Fold this protein.
Amino acid sequence: MIVSLLILLLLVCVYIYFFPFIPRRKKHYTYALLLGCPSHDDGTMASSQIKRCNLAINMYKKGLYDTLIISGSNVKNQYVEAKVMNDYINNRIEIPTILETHARNTFENFKLSKEYIQNQDVLILTSQTHAKRACAIARHFFSDYSCAWFKDLKMKHILREIISRVIYIKIELLKK
């Protein structure tokens, strides 16, 4: 029993080390970074894309940021995530926007968007299941960031994120 509790405590500590608490959100950011996700193969938007775009629109209407950076390439098919998401947003509201169209994963979203954000503050926009890992990666690139998300409790997204977090820990351990 004690050994099991010690192992559990160790796992919790490892998890918190790699995925620290998300910084408290401020009232305003210079940039918001909308993380892309793939469209369907026929070019229609995935529900996650629509929810992320609606989150960006809502956060802008609340005055939480000045400029939106949409990041994402054509990872799963020929449709560039950033462009598809930008079209959706532009059909609903006018927001100052920068498109980053080369990122193929979450790490590259931050790496390639750093060129625009530099040392400014940034609000990361993504799904609930993705937020913790996104912020874990963001801390390597930005000192002043937080996150806003929409609820996402689909089992396939949760399972994919668990696998992604294990892979993230493995990559971080190999760096050391």
Summary: The helical segments are 2-18, 47-61, 81-90, 106-117, 128-138, 155-175. Residues 155-175 form the longest helix (21 residues). Residues 34 and 70 are 5 Å apart (CA to CA).
